[in-house]
Design brief:
By secondary structure, the protein is mostly helical. The protein contains seven helices and no strands. It has one domain (3-151). Helix content is 78%, strand content 0%.
Amino acid sequence: MTGAAQRPSIGLAAMAMFFVFGTSMAALSCLALLFPSDTVDRIWRLNPQAHAAFLAMGPWAIALLALLALMCALTSVGLWKRARWGLHLAVLILGLNVIGDAGNAIARGDLRTLIGLPIGGVFIAYLLSRRVRDQFAGNERRRAATHQQHSSQ
């Protein structure tokens, strides 16, 4: 197997890095809620509404952010390895985000959240494209061939 066959495409690697970024932001937010301090609370200047919403949720916010960080980390690994479950997780997380953005626009009247709809839609369309799905299918074929090779020895 060549090095190129082992690595995802640039676009898929970028999507994996997007989920690494999501992992980092969710984990950082979780830690900022767990260990509040003047220094750490500066991050909330970026999104004071989120801080207020998380505080209103109480301990559930910490659990939700920890779960999101875990799911984003798993998704990143799954996309990098081109495991089908990683693709499914990515589409699920992005789909839930699109629904959440639409819900926030409707329920809270925050039209700024609508920017997430086309971005999430483009990401989902990319992940569901034939070109990306073929990378996952090709990786499964390589794994099966390697497994069969090891089994016959």
